[in-house]
Amino acid sequence: MKKKIKIAPSILASDFSSLGEEITSISKAGADYIHFDIMDGNFVPNLTFGPNTVKSLRKYSKKIFDVHLMIKSVDDFLIPFIKAGADIISFHPENVKNVEKTIKKIKSNKKKVGLVLNPNINEKKIFPYLKKIDLVLVMSVYPGFGGQKFMNSQIKKIQNIYKKTQMEKLNIDIEVDGGIKSSNANKVIEAGANVLVAGTACFKGGKKFYKKNILSLRKSK
């Protein structure tokens, strides 16, 4: 039986001049998670925000803060983001020296942990860690910029991860990020995903459309 579909609006697509209000509005509109894309200008060709921004925004919502670390120095920033209010921390395995050690550090601080797969990374790379994590984040675009087109090649990867979790009877969320919109959400869900990250699709049109936007994604279940 598939899980309830959760929507995680990426604030990368929100109005940065009023981030607090944006998070409050999107939370009230029905978001399940608030997704933070943390970019360092090194691992990916863009810069976003750090722990202080997350900390300052924590008071605007009680929703789960879903933090995706697209940074080289993952281990150096775990505790700062945990202290800032992150509930889930997802990282790219290639950016740490010891994947199991990093997982253990996040878990020991009573936070959920996810492993992220870029489009060119085979899903089998993270299979040895599935019993130790809470979430797999499949990138359906190459990270670094919002508004990119969904890569259909990632559907098979989602299916393979879902089959593996079912076979092993693992209670793991499968999250997908990149080019998600109402017209393709259904095929992502059918492939086995249950958490959809969406930026433009959630925030387009302004506050009065947020609820409708989220429902449009969720109705694909």
Question: What's this model, at a glance?
Answer:
The chain is of the alpha/beta class and 221 residues long.
Structure description:
- The protein has an eight-stranded parallel β-sheet.
- The longest helix is centred in the last third of the chain and has 13 residues, at 155-167.
- It is built from eight helices and eight strands; from the N terminus they run E-H-E-H-E-H-E-H-E-E-H-E-H-E-H-H.
- It has a single domain (6-218), classed as Aldolase class I (TIM Barrel).
- Helices cover 32% and strands 19% of the residues.
List its salient traits.
alpha/beta, 32% helix, 221 residues, TIM Barrel, eight-stranded parallel beta sheet
Please work out how many helical segments DSSP would assign.
Answer: 8
Number of domains: 1
CATH class: Alpha Beta
Distance between the termini: 12 Å
- Give the tally of β-strands: 8
Please render the helix and strand layout as text.
Elements (H helix, E strand, L loop, with lengths): L5 E4 L9 H10 L4 E7 L11 H7 L6 E7 L3 H11 L3 E4 L7 H10 L3 E6 L17 E5 L15 H13 L5 E5 L7 H7 L3 E4 L1 H4 L6 H9 L3
Parallel strand pairs: 1-8, 2-3, 3-4, 4-5, 5-6, 6-7, 7-8
Helix pairs in contact: 2-3, 5-6
